[in-house]
Amino acid sequence: MAQRFNYRVFLTSVLMCLSPLSFAAPLIQPSSNVDEDGHELHSAEVPVESIQQFVQIYNLVKDNYVEAKSDDALFQQAIKGLVSGLDRYSRYLSPEDYKQLVQYTEGDLASVDFALVYDARIHQWVVRDLKEGADSYKLGLRNGQNVLKIDGQDLQTLNHDQVHTLLYGSIGTPIQIQTAEMPVSQTLIRNKKIEADVQPILLHNQVLVLKVKVFQQDTANEIKRLLEEYGSPRLKAVIIDLRNNPGGLLSAAVESADLFLNQGIIVSTKSRSEGNQQFQALPSSEFLRLKMGILINHRSASAAEVFTAAMKDHQRAWVIGEKSYGKGVVQKLFPLPDGSALQMTVSHYYTPDGSMIEGKGIQPNQRYPLPADMKDETYLENVADLLLKQPKS
């Protein structure tokens, strides 16, 4: 069995490797397991072989990389690599990044701090209304620049609505923008809050479409209010449109699902450190007779997938569209003494049937993506017709 010891020894060892001394396991006194606030510290153990390998690689980089790097820069890079290598969501936040993140309201929908306008003369999407001093301006973006890709997706084949929904996401989340003037993509932060009330559309076939852009604190109450407002003997069905919905608050998704269920699990979470939880539907019959459809696409994520999976697994709604994004994680912020923080995955979402959402997404009952040459109004009418042909859940 490999020899193991406390991580404090590891830190001391790494510090020693920066001196001319050869590597040796240092002798240190056991330190206190309580921090300044009296909270118990949990010490991790690291195998000696791993420490030796890290020190060897560290010295090789320090001595041979084409540009000189400070010890602080190398350690910051090592920390970022450690956290970002866990999954696609966990990341290390510098003090500046963390300070900016906590200023945002969690779960709100946001966009970037400029407008994208299609210039028919050059057949390109162009940056407009970017103010000098804005965050994107400070990062090098300028009015008049041509945007080629958003999050790696080429804009040439997308329509107006598709391009603008790419800009939407949970406030404080990163977005990759690539312009013709930049050789590589630039990471921006969605920091312009968008009002995200539930938008009703009553179709000619008496199907009510409720567009939910993001799950916020009052989403369930707003859905209930609109159903009561539009509800009549003539209303044939309701479609919850979750296309491009990045998620939002888990509690809001659970409350929204609870409107249409009268029993059973809505979602469960499993965590090594936080414990496992189950969210159950409460008995209710208010909207049980209402025929339901859910419309999703590949950008429906997180809380939107929780809602969709609950409705689908309980056979309460017919899901139409395309496979969802597949983000089924709960994240937690761990502030550090220097003002930085770790944003780390601590739990996974599981559907009522016990399937993990992360990396898999939710498959629709009926696949029907939006055709590139079809108007959204026509698409919604077609989706409503498909729903009406299905037997009532």
Automatic annotation (TrEMBL):
CDD domains (UniProt xref): Peptidase_S41_CPP
Signal peptide: 1-24
BP GO terms, sorted: proteolysis
Keyword field: Hydrolase, Protease, Serine protease, Signal
Residue span, Tail specific protease domain: 181-369
Gene Ontology terms for molecular function: serine-type endopeptidase activity
Stored PANTHER family: CARBOXY-TERMINAL PROCESSING PROTEASE CTPA, TAIL-SPECIFIC PROTEASE
The name this protein goes by in its record: Carboxyl-terminal processing protease
Natural source organism: Acinetobacter baylyi
